[in-house]
Write a structure and sequence with these properties.
By secondary structure, this protein is mostly helical. The chain folds into two domains: about 55 residues; about 50 residues, no CATH class. The protein contains five helices and no strands. The longest helix is centred in the first third of the chain and has 49 residues. It is elongated and about 90 Å long. The two termini are about 60 Å apart. About 10% of the residues have low confidence. It comes from Streptomyces liliiviolaceus. This is Sec-independent protein translocase protein TatB.
Length: about 150
């Protein structure tokens, strides 16, 4: 319940409580607060039991924590009826990014070079091979203008 309170905050709360309520009234206040918290917990547990009873036997394994989206998604990923782990493991993001950067810089990556060698064997003479390496330019020379690329 109080997971975010550290030792320094706890000491500060105790000192403030002693200053505000005084050492005489502090034990009574602590008892009142704990009694109130206990009643709130009992009320929430009885409300949960009533809801489970009203839902019927088909929802006997229903947990209110499942309504939290993070818990729901975690349970669904662990269940894996949809094959989500296979889909997630099927993506190799580093490989995809390497292929994109190679294509941008005009280099051939390993996967495109193997696919282009097989595809270039059956290509017609009218198509332009996009995986061809660019020719090196002199340091002050500008690249040729391509109207279709702009």
């Amino acid at each position: 319940m109080f997971n975010d309170i550290g030792p320094l905050e706890l000491v500060t709360i105790v000192v403030l409580a002693v200053l505000v309520f005084g050492p005489e009234k502090l034990p009574k206040m602590i008892q009142d607060v704990t009694r109130t918290i206990r009643k709130i917990r009992e009320f929430s547990e009885s409300a949960k039991a009533d809801i489970r009873e009203e839902l019927g036997p088909e929802f006997k394994d229903f947990e209110f924590e499942d309504l939290n989206p993070k818990t729901f998604i975690r349970k669904q990923l662990d269940n894996d009826e949809l094959g989500l782990k296979e889909i997630r493991n099927g993506f190799d993001l580093k490989k995809e990014m390497a292929e994109v950067t190679d294509a941008v810089h005009g280099r051939e990556s390993e996967s495109t070079s193997s696919s282009s060698s097989s595809s270039s064997a059956g290509s017609t003479g009218g198509t332009v091979d996009m995986t061809k390496k660019r020719e090196k330019l002199a340091p002050q020379e500008r690249p040729p203008f391509d109207a279709d690329a702009t």
